[in-house]
């Protein structure tokens, strides 16, 4: 093996080179993506890193689309691999900051890993950017105080319509449409799992728990990812994590997997502030990303 590759690997392991730069340099030194993946395996790196190297060589396309809902057209950002599919699909639900660059980056991340991703722009979630309006700032305060996410029905109707829009596309695998959301969107991803029995899987990044009685209705596996430094209140998102896990074990027939990252704050999957934000490459974010794809892979094709 090339000595320069071994030296580069040691620099990466010692923190002298970040993850993104390391992968890019390995691809160059190996002479292409196809050769880089087996080299990373020989060097003893995990499957997540190999997946990222493979994604560098994946052609994706992005586009702005619209879907009908309640007499209006909902704008959305769509990212997908080049090709006819059908692809496993994820609805990406944004934070209260709206359809930010971070959320679009999440959609592209999904596409680079062979998923079609649709990121709707919800006016209730401050789609235009900036700070939340008074109504939704109040919703967040109430949710933090009670620890219970009571999502309005009209917002869930839009998610149902997004699901219906996707299920009719020829490049979508209709049996594998899931959701992933962040904070405001995380609560909606969790709630959507209680209302859509056909949902394939739900991923919740630091999102509040729906009313406990609603957990009985969940028919899909759920992965919930929390930051330990989010908030130490018993009714906070992280404060209710263990209670949510216990209740899911009793109430839902489907698996509930959860992780709390000790050194992670709220919003740990995002780096920067809107509009100049993107998917983070911190240790908790990288671990969570690999866990998310592992979770989806494990439940692919299961009934």
Tell me which CATH architecture of the largest domain applies here: 3-Layer(aba) Sandwich
How is the largest sheet built, in terms of strand order? 1-2-4-3-5-6-7-8
- What is the general shape? globular
What is the count of β-strands?
10
| Arithmetic mean pLDDT | 85
Name the helix and strand elements from N-terminus to C-terminus, one letter apiece. HHHHEEEHEHHEHEEHEEEH
Spans of at least 5 consecutive residues with low confidence? none
Please name the defining characteristics of this protein.
8-stranded mixed β-sheet, 10 helices, alpha/beta, 2 domains, Rossmann fold, 10 strands, two-stranded antiparallel ribbon, 303 residues
In short:
The chain is an alpha/beta fold and 303 residues long.
Give an account of the 3D structure.
The protein is an alpha/beta fold and 303 residues long. It contains 10 helices and 10 strands. The protein folds into 2 domains: 3-56; 60-298, Alpha/Beta hydrolase fold, catalytic domain (Rossmann fold). The longest helix has 16 residues, at 283-298. It is globular, with a radius of gyration of 19 Å.
């Amino acid at each position: 093996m090339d000595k320069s590759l071994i030296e580069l690997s040691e620099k990466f392991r010692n923190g002298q080179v970040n993850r993104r730069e390391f992968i890019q340099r390995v691809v160059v030194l190996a002479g292409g993506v196809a050769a880089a993946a087996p080299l990373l395996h020989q060097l003893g790196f995990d499957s997540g890193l190999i997946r990222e190297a493979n994604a560098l060589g994946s052609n994706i396309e992005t586009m702005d689309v619209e879907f009908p809902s309640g007499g209006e057209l909902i704008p959305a950002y769509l990212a997908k691999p080049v090709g006819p599919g059908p692809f496993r699909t994820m609805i990406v639900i944004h934070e209260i900051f709206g359809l930010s660059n971070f959320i679009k980056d999440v959609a592209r991340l999904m596409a680079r890993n062979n998923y079609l991703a649709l990121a709707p722009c919800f006016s209730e979630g401050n789609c235009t950017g900036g700070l939340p309006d008074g109504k939704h700032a109040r919703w967040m305060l109430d949710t933090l105080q009670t620890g219970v996410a009571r999502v309005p029905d009209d917002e869930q109707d839009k998610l149902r319509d997004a699901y219906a829009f996707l299920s009719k596309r020829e490049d979508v695998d209709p049996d594998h449409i899931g959701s992933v959301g962040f904070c405001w969107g995380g609560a909606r991803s969790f709630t959507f799992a209680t209302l859509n029995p056909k949902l394939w899987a739900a991923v919740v990044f630091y999102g509040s728990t729906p009313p406990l009685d609603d957990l009985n209705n969940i028919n899909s596996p759920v992965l919930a990812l929390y930051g330990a430094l989010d908030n130490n209140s018993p009714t906070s998102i992280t404060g209710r994590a263990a209670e949510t896990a216990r209740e899911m074990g009793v109430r839902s027939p489907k698996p509930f997997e959860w992780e709390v990252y000790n050194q992670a704050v709220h919003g740990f999957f995002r780096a920067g502030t809107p509009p100049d934000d993107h998917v983070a490459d911190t240790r908790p974010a990288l671990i969570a990303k690999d866990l998310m794809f592992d979770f989806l892979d494990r439940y692919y094709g299961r009934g």
